[in-house]
Amino acid sequence: MEVTLNVRRYDPDSAKPAPYYQEYDLEIDETHTVLDGLIKVREEVDGTLALRCSCRSAVCGSCAMRVNGHAVLACKTKVRDLLHRGSTKLTVEPAGNMPIIKDLVVEFNVFWDKIRAVEPWLQPQGVPPQQEYIAPNEDMLHLAGVMACIMCGACVSDCTVLEVDKHFLGPAALAKAYRFVADPRDDAEKSRLGKLVQYGGVWDCTRCMQCVQVCPKGVDPMGRIMALRDRAIENGYHNSNGARHAETFARSIKHSGTLDELRLPIGTFGIWNVKEMLKLIPLGLKAQMRGKRPPIFHKAIPGAENVRRIFEKVESKR
Amino acid sequence: MIDQDVLVIGAGLAGMRAALAAAENGASVAVVTKVYPVRSHSNAAQGGINAALTDRGDKWEDHAYDTVKGSDYLGDQDAIEVMCREAGQEVITMEHMGTIFSRDDAGKLGVRAFGGQRQARTFFVADFTGQALLHVLHEQVLKHKVKVYEEWFVLSLLVEDGECCGAVVMDIRTGAIHVFRAKAVILASGGLGRVFEPSTNALICTGDGMAQAYRVGAPLMDMEMVQYHPTTLKSNGALMSEAARGEGAYLVNALGERFMKKYAPNMMELASRDVVSRSEQTEINEGRGINGCVLLDCRHLGEKKINERLLTIREVAKDFAGVDMVQEPVPIRPGMHYQMGGILTDVDGQTAVPGLYAAGETACVSVHGGNRLGANSLLDTLVFGRRSGVHASDRAKYTKHKNLTDASADNDRQHIRALLDRNGPGEMFGKVRLEMGQTMNQHLAVFRNQQGMETALAKVRELKQRYEKVIVHDKGKTFNTNLIFTLELGFMLDCAEAIVLGALERRESRGAHTRTDMPKRDDENWLKHILIAKTPEEPKVSYKPVVITQWKPQARTY
Fold first, then answer.
1. Do A133 and B140 touch (CB under 8 A)?
2. B294: which strand partners?
3. Helix axes B410-421, B481-505, angle to 10 degrees
4. Architecture in CATH for domain A2-106
5. Residues 67-106, chain A: which have Cβ within 8 Å of B?
6. Given an 8 Å threshold on Cβ–Cβ distance, is B35 in contact with A62?
7. How far is CA B468 from the centre of its chain?
8. Helix axes A221-234, A170-181, angle to 10 degrees
9. Whole-angstrom Cα distance, residue A71 to residue B460?
10. Residue A318: pLDDT above 80?
């Protein structure tokens, strides 16, 4: 099978370092992965191509990179599966949201710094038991879904929040944090959550699902972030824009069956938050001019009481 | 120059366990690793970790006997006793640190059956036990703020007055070469799988530590004992965990027979790995295979159990063999997996060079002898990693730094300079590595013979000569992987030579070393270890008696 790998190159040691694309025409096997192709390049064609890789079986997390625009593990991605409609070319680029060191190698320290920031170690209280901690197997199985994370950084690469805000802890670190919050042996749930509801934490995720889609191990980082939000509210952390936003949203739906858009920002920021309230004025004027201002008097939809009954049923099951 | 009491090379399970133990013992510790810690090959261990926990009616002596028998009586029984006695505590420690071991109905640690053992004593996390342990140890390293030099590559060890006192290390990011000075150095740099092609091992498993120790005079032991794992995929050599058979999977030949009943009527699929691999290869050689494979049949386990306990390998089989094991049997064959041999050490990790320690796959204590039991390797890394860390940090208390300077790295700097300055037509490392790997896999696999091994020796020596002329295409300083791979190939060629020399020396069949021309075990002449040491001339071969405490060698049947 013939394929062209169009690889984004960057050599910091060259006279005028600048990124460029280089094409490699390869003859490869039907079953070969993108990584097989890249290894063939560096071993037989062009020894200067730099990339990280090691295990070749999707457990070490070294070879996350973008292929045709999305983060993948190169070792887990078959070339054949990405060639659509007779195309024979794949574009291979370094992972996103991390500075490039050389070719497909990115600066991973920014990734580890965020992992470190969530204090990623078990924090039990008191003296450990003589033997093992007793814990339900279901809890361990549940955690195994998170521990399956191999820290490849695919989710971080394609996170749309990190693209605009470098302060966001990001999907990998937050999933790691969840692993401890949900561990029955860990006694620091409350203080962990207290930090995670701050700026850059769980409320900054926009639920775009990119991390869920690109994760090669099915870790579902966004689902873990949502679970952290629930636990934060259960632990009494109502006092954040995110928590208030969620609670105002739910309250509005519960009472009228539809969202009261006018009161949502007021509920989120608080009516006495003068700075944020002032910021809303130009927005309101713009909406008014374009005929998109939400009604001042919010009306319930017909059958709103049925919506309320759904809420009550769900809430009674908690 | 960078000073610390204890320098640990490698950040897999053995390295990080050693570093933690040394730090807890009050030493200043630095870890140097060529990949980020969680990228280490300990990740790949799927099935579990063995330990006899007394509160479930198991005895460490039983575990030790299974290990001795598994080793085909080549393992040193004093070392095996240490490992098995300390196993339970090590598993509990890892649990306390946060490992999410699978549980039984009472919420206590659950076990699964594993090969070569009469009792189920393998503790596990689904089928990614190594990864789970590795990530937990990494968490502890972060917690204790152990200094880790990530993506730094060791070029050589430094020895003064006969004592190891540091290492020369290159920062892969910048290409800068530094001297690390230490009162003790612990090599925990893993195995040498890439000497073979294919192999289940990661691309980083290039025998660096074994070759570095060998080059400063520490002998290598049991190097001929190379484990072929019974269940690897044909396409890329990927591993299908022994956990599959532990959970009850069958091995079936082209005729649909569970052929293990002919070779190991009692233990069947859960006989020792060398036994199962030989049986499979015999089936294949005698025409009862399918395209050079036999079948691993998991269908009767059911989708629920497979998803709960074997999900990783289900994914691997889907990705790399295009087979869903819930629906179809998976074609598998024996593939190179583990090096039982390595740098000769005692039970505290001390090598023949004072100040130099080794632990994990790079070391040979020897607890695995002629054949390692599944789920004993994780145990080996943790027990002997910790013991090395304790002993090395004790040594640091009464040892002074040697008189090194930054100029101690000049030899390596010149060597690298010369390598990068070498130009012109000539081959890259890739072709030499591939020929080495294929040669080893052809002649030093499950079945061996004199002629094949001699062919391999001649080939390895030819490749060593060709290696001296290999061209490094990348001349840059930053992240020059072309240079790293070329240096690794040099280490691998040393290892390959030692393996072939050891194999040629052992004129019997024992454990993983099976000679078609000398098929019998010969306790009278060969119940001893073979050591290979570097000298200015030819490598020197010598022997060391096997330590036998309570289990006299017997015929080995499963």
1. no
2. B332
3. 110
4. Roll (3.10)
5. 76, 78, 101-103, 105
6. yes
7. 27
8. 50
9. 40
10. no
Q: Convert A37-68 to b/e letters by CB count within 10 Å (16 or more is b).
A: bbbbbbbebbbbbbbbbbbbbbbbbbbbbbbb
CA separation for the pair B123, B526 (Å, rounded): 35
Active-site annotation holder among B273, B278, B387, B395: B273
- Residues B168, B9 contacting (CB under 8 angstroms): no
**pLDDT value of position A31:** 84
The secondary structure of chain A as a DSSP string is -EEEEEEEE--TTSSS---EEEEEEEE--TT-BHHHHHHHIIIII-TT-------SSSSS---EEEETTEEEEGGG-BHHHH--TT--EEEEE--SSS-EEETTEE--HHHHHHHHHT--S----SPPPSSPPP--HHHHHHHHHHHT-----HHHHH-HHHHH-TTS-HHHHHHHHHHHHT-TT---HHHHHHHHTSTTSGGG-----HHHHH-TT---HHHHHHHHHHHHHHTT---SHHHHHHHHHHHHHHHHSS--TTHHHHHHH-TT-HHHHHHHHHHHHHHHHTT-PPPSS--PPTTHHHHHHHHHHHHHT-
Q: Residue B468's pLDDT band (boundaries 50, 70, 90)?
A: very high
Classify the phi-psi angles of B323: left when phi > 0, otherwise alpha if psi is within -120 to 50, otherwise beta: beta
Residue B108, SS3 per DSSP:
coil
pLDDT digits (tens, 9 = 90+) for A80-122: 999 887 889 999 999 999 999 999 999 999 999 999 999 999 9
CB B546 within 8 A of CB B529: yes
Element (H or E) spanning B112, and its range?
strand B111-112
By CB neighbour count within 10 A (0-12 exposed, 13-18 middle, 19+ buried), where does A264 fall?
Answer: middle
Contact B363, B228 (CB under 8 A): no
Which of B35, B42, B139 is the best mutation test for A, with the most CBs of A within 10 A?
A: B139
- Interface pTM, i.e. ipTM: 0.94
Q: Which domains are delineated in chain B?
A: 230-334 (3.90.700.10), 409-528 (1.20.58.100)
Q: Is B333 a catalytic residue?
A: no
- Beta strand pairing call for B177-187 and A70-73: unpaired
Residue numbers in A near B434 (CB within 8 A): 43
Cβ pairs bridging A and B (under 8 Å): 173
Identify the CATH number of the domain defined by range A109-234: 1.10.1060.10
Q: Which residue has the tokens 């933690």?
A: B20
pLDDT in tens, B205-255: 999 999 999 999 999 999 999 999 999 998 788 899 898 999 999 999 999
Alpha carbon of B474: minimum distance to chain A alpha carbons (Å): 5
Beta strands B220-221; B342-344: pairing state: antiparallel
Q: What are the residue boundaries of the structural domains of chain A, listed by start? A: 2-106, 109-234, 241-316
pLDDT confidence tier of residue B47, bands split at 50, 70 and 90: confident
- Facing B479 at nearest CB: one of A50, A135, A137: A50
Coil, strand or helix: which one is B340? coil
- Tokens describing residue B409: 């790295």
| Amino acid sitting at position B58 | D
| Measured distance CA(B28)–CA(B243) in Å, rounded | 39
Record the pTM.
0.95
Alpha-carbon span B225 to B203, nearest angstrom: 20
Interchain CB distance below 8 Å, B107 and A134: yes
Q: Return d(Cα B512, Cα B70) in angstroms, integer.
A: 10
| Alpha helices (H) in B202-285, listed in sequence order | 208-215, 243-246, 260-263, 273-285
Quote the CA–CA distance of A247 and A223 in Å, as a whole number.
Answer: 18
Q: Check: CB of residue B171 under 8 Å from CB of residue A101.
A: no
Secondary structure class of B111 (helix, strand, coil): strand
Asked if the Cβ–Cβ distance from A47 to B139 is below 8 Å, we say no
Query: Using the beta-carbon criterion (under 8 Å), do B480 and A121 form an inter-chain contact?
Result: no
